From TrEMBL, chain B:
Alphabetic keyword roster: Cell membrane, Membrane, Transmembrane, Transmembrane helix, Transport
Membrane topology: Multi-pass membrane protein
Domain of life: Bacteria
Phylogenetic placement of the source organism: Bacteria, Pseudomonadati, Pseudomonadota, Alphaproteobacteria, Hyphomicrobiales
Domain ABC transmembrane type-1: 94-297
CDD domains: TM_PBP2
Membrane-crossing residue ranges in chain numbering: 9-30, 96-121, 133-159, 171-190, 211-233, 239-260, 272-300
Protein name: ABC transporter, permease protein
Gene Ontology biological-process annotations: transmembrane transport
Amino acid sequence: MTSETKKTVLSIKDLKVDFETATGTINAVQGVDIHVQAGETVAIVGESGSGKSQTMMAAMGLLASNGRTRGEVIYEGRNILGLPVGKLNKIRGAKITMIFQEPMTSLDPLYTIGRQLAEPMVVHGGLSWKAAKAKALDLLKLVNIPEPERKINAYPYEMSGGQRQRVMIAMSLANDPDVLIADEPTTALDVTTQAQILDLLADLQKRLGMAVIFITHDLGIVRRIADRVYVMKTGEVVENGDTGQIFNRPAHPYTRMLLDAEPTGHKLPVPDSAPVLLEAQKVAVEFELDSGFLKPRHVLRAVDNISFSLRKGQTLGIVGESGSGKSTLGRAVLNLLPAGGRVVFHGQQITGKSRAEMRALRKDMQLIFQDPFGSLSPRMTVGQIISEGLMVHEPSLSGRQRDERACQALEEVSLDPAMRNRYPHEFSGGQRQRIAIARTMVLKPELVVLDEPTSALDRTIQKQVVELLRDLQKAHGLTYLFISHDLAVVRAISDTVMVMQRGKVVEAGTADAIFEAPKCDYTKELIGAAMLTQQQMMETA
Amino acid sequence: MLRYVFGRLLGAIPTLFLIVTISFFLIRIAPGGPFDLERPLEAKVMENLNKIYHLNEPLWNQYLLYLQSVARLDFGPSFYFRDFSINELFAESLPISIQLGLSALCLALIVGGILGVAAALRQNRPADYSIMAAATLGVTIPNFVVAPILTLILGVWLGWLPVGGWNGGAFVNRVLPVVTLALPQIAVVARLTRGSMIEALRSNHVRTARAYGLTSYMIVVVHALRGAILPVVSYLGPAAAALLTGSVVIETIFGIPGIGRYFVQGALNRDYTLVMGTVVVVACFVILFNLVVDLLYALLDPRVRYD
């Protein structure tokens, strides 16, 4: 397919975006040129903060009120940048539509799916509400929503993330658009759902022929769906070209770094003589759903009789989609949730111990969370956050000694100890996750449960964090319980892997065995969804 | 839904019982009685009065007698307004207070809501700052300052409105008390609406509405305001109970025969039944309006369901 013969539907010329803030002007986008042709898929790739989303937000007139734009956005021979809202609204939502990253919040929680799908058709297509509702039903069928007749009257909270994203896609197609802008539409979804949504988008594009601009930080997706790629870094396009060319002969060092960012390497196995640190026998957690006075009891088995044992220095990777019970298992093992079964830590049974009895053990068993933004108190300095645990577990230390330990911990996670008097909001996501790791390491624990510690981070940062975790493990003989839905990360860090589905372990074994010779269909599906990228590269090569 | 409402009303009975019990004994602890006048009554008269009103019986008996009559929705005779029963007093004054309070409430909701939305749409611009400055003034200047000033300007100098009296509820007589009663509420509603509206306008689903080129009305009213009004609704529950059960200050200044003045008169005169009556009425209103708020919530937010 030669691109010269096709018509350019949207072109962005020398677009600049500035944000006026209290601390000065931020030049978020610094002169970007992007164009897309009819029926083409163009990917804009970059890490968070590269300005890739802001470029498209600016083009659509959706910037925050402190944003200023310069440049041109040409659609059908007309500059739509800075058009009055009334005129712009003839185009956005009708001819150029968007899908957003956050499927959980992009739809209004207070209105039914059908009503929200109908709105753009009533506004742009001039349809009656009744006709629009009828068309909404067709759209739901088009995006393969199960039971569309029922779901059309459902509220967003009654649907899963994947379904909501399908609804957004349906909305974007309602008025037969020329350009569809998809801003990280699969980032918040599970791998298998991700694959389904990408397939759906590709299929719809083939059938309907609109151009797609796909904003993402995930190169796997780019390789899979894009015809051309723009690589963005700090507000500029550093490289662009055909997908094959970008992947096979990247010219810019930043592109090469992005391509190189898949977590790699393996963990060295632990000798068989290492003592068993943690043993879980038939751990079970049940939640009562929606029960009340005079109502039938409804029980969800979030964790269903799971047993494993971990030797000192080992890493057990727990893999599964959201809702599979992997986080609940992690919490049950730490006795943070009432659970059935038996957990033995260091030869001591910890199930059934009271909070007071557990407190002495907490020092040795720590937890790191997924969300590096929510898990650090915004009102404490980094130094206070890190040394807080010492006040409980080593009360004999003086303030100065605590401060020294905090500095050591920061050095261990490769952060400058001089930064310990700053507050969390002054740090990036990757740095915050390092702070969270330092807070754990300062107590010199033996067992660390890591609950999706890399999921909120960019690929390049993920790789660094994985390497940091491996180094710390080697240096201190740590034992990890590593919970993640990201198979590449799990493979790079784990000795053994457990695959969970609906509270049960469907497959367990060494990392290599699971990834190279998966037995269970669900595992194959997970790996298939995640690894398509590599297969495709082999096909294109 | 009906089951839920029924359950909530049933659940209010023990609450009311507790309130009646506690206030019954509290008011008896206060020194003095209803018939302790400056010039003491003759012993014989006093004895007769005590007998008629059962004050000579043990406290427990009085309490049980009172419970019995309250269960029959009879709040007993007033000790101070001797020719009236509490029921008669309330039947006359409560509707006036409810009309006054309801008008003020509607005014506060409409004007405060509009001001709040206007301020949110012009966040950090002159219009926003002026509305919020006015709202701060509205909250800080007390009723008994606003009322005489308004009366002086509109009633005395300009002569547009009567300075007081209810006059059977004529419109001109209502304007000043309603406006005075509503002013602080307008201020609070405006502040609350502005805050939640700003948050709503920044939310992702409003961004979706903008990205899909919906009209300003749909973005602001349909998608942002419906969610933003929720905190206002939860504020209005207790506020409505307070407004509808009368305002001592407003009713006194404008000479309106509402229920508000009975709070003070009842307490000062040790009119036991009058105090108890007002307490029960206020408690019922609070319970009722909390229920109304919860039902409104369910109406506005489909995620809240009481089935």
